[in-house]
Amino acid sequence: MDLVDSISTAIRSRPTAICMASGLLAFNTVALTVSWFAQPNLVDNHGGEVFFIGLWGCLAYATFHAWGWVKATITGIWVAYLWGLLNTGNVLEGIATTSAADLVSKVLGLIVLILLWLPAGRDWYLRQAQERSES
Predict the structure, then answer these.
(1) Could you tell me the pTM of the whole model?
(2) Is residue 9 in some structural domain?
(3) How does pLDDT run across 119-133, given as a tens digit for each residue?
């Protein structure tokens, strides 16, 4: 029961926004995996799919542990996605040709980014960074 107690204590010590963000990222990882296994023919690049499944999983873990690179990474994913859409020449067509799983993934990433910038999440991240720098 020590593991269950330590996990529940860790969850209670984090703001709700952080727990929700980490949970959404974990859900994102599972959703991409299930989508990939259910309809592998919808994936153009299987190596890229494995990369993003791993990345979203790492982001879920890193969010829960307040690693500072999470916000920058999600922002980078969004910038790259928007850049790709703009390069298609037709943004609406680019969105229409994106798979549902990929769209859900991007929307969840955007929601998580908003959650991480809420005052409670931002302040908690800053406190964690200060504690790390002192030790």
Answers:
(1) 0.85
(2) no
(3) 988 899 888 888 888
